[in-house]
Amino acid sequence: APLVSLRGVAKRYATGTLALDGIDLAVRQGDFLALLGPSGCGKSTLLRIMAGLAAPSAGAIDWAAGEGRGDVGFVFQEPTLMPWATVLRNVTLPLELAGMKRAEAEDRAAEWLARVELGGFEHAYPRALSGGMKMRVSIARALVTRPRLLLLDEPFAALDEITRFRLNNDLLKLWQDERFTVVFVTHSVFESVFLAERIVVMAPRPGRIAQSLEVTAPAR
Ligand code: ADP
Ligand code: ADP
């Protein structure tokens, strides 16, 4: 059974815009799925609905038994780090909110910071970090609670090409090691082909799934 499936999901905003119409999508456990499409085709809307941040106007979302919206990690294009808190504290917070003791949370957070190549930056503040490094903190923060589903909304779009390429490589390696389930929104064909096992191509007006392709990426 898929981890999460959407059946006939539609979204009409209060403005009247029909952002999604008749979306049927099943995300399998351990899948790396890219949602590819031009600006305005409803990718972000679909991701927010999967995260439970927006409600569909029609249709249903079914989670495999034991899974729920609380078990989702989200990475946005703008790393939304708390500027007054250290890198370590930014990553421990979701664990502490989940009830973990501070010392254990710090160990766990430090481990994830090392995995995203930020060992030694625990006590730095976000403003001291480059865009790529802030994105790495965001990824560590999203993964530290070990969510069953990781959602990324054009995470690397604002970064320079070299940083972007490095982050793509590192994300792919993390996924190969951990096999968490990923839905990655992008308008880059290159990124989709490089990263994903399955590419779901969306078309605008209204947002629909135009094509679903299985990929054997040359990188793996
Ligand atoms: P994408 O992520 O593919 O660029 P979005 O999901 O952001 O697409 O947007 C899909 C459509 O819904 C667009 O026409 C956009 O203008 C519209 N839209 C997105 N968010 C809102 C909102 N909060 N209120 C009204 N319309 C919105
Ligand atoms: P990344 O792809 O990790 O963002 P950058 O090109 O931003 O890479 O930085 C390359 C390396 O330079 C980083 O991994 C880090 O070791 C170092 N670095 C960048 N910015 C800073 C900073 N503000 N303070 C200390 N070291 C930095």
UniProtKB/TrEMBL annotation:
InterPro entries: AAA+_ATPase, ABC_transporter-like_ATP-bd, ABC_transporter-like_CS, ABC_transporter_ATP-bind, P-loop_NTPase. Residues 4-220 form the ABC transporter domain. One of its GO terms (molecular function) is ATP binding. PANTHER family: ALIPHATIC SULFONATES IMPORT ATP-BINDING PROTEIN SSUB 2 (PTHR42788:SF19), TAURINE IMPORT ATP-BINDING PROTEIN-RELATED (PTHR42788). The keyword Nucleotide-binding applies. Coiled coil: none annotated. This is Nitrate/sulfonate/bicarbonate ABC transporter ATP-binding protein. It comes from the Bacteria. Belongs to the ABC transporter superfamily. PROSITE patterns: ABC_TRANSPORTER_1, ABC_TRANSPORTER_2. It comes from Neoroseomonas lacus. SUPFAM superfamilies: P-loop containing nucleoside triphosphate hydrolases. It holds the Pfam family ABC_tran. Keywords: ATP-binding, Nucleotide-binding, Transport.
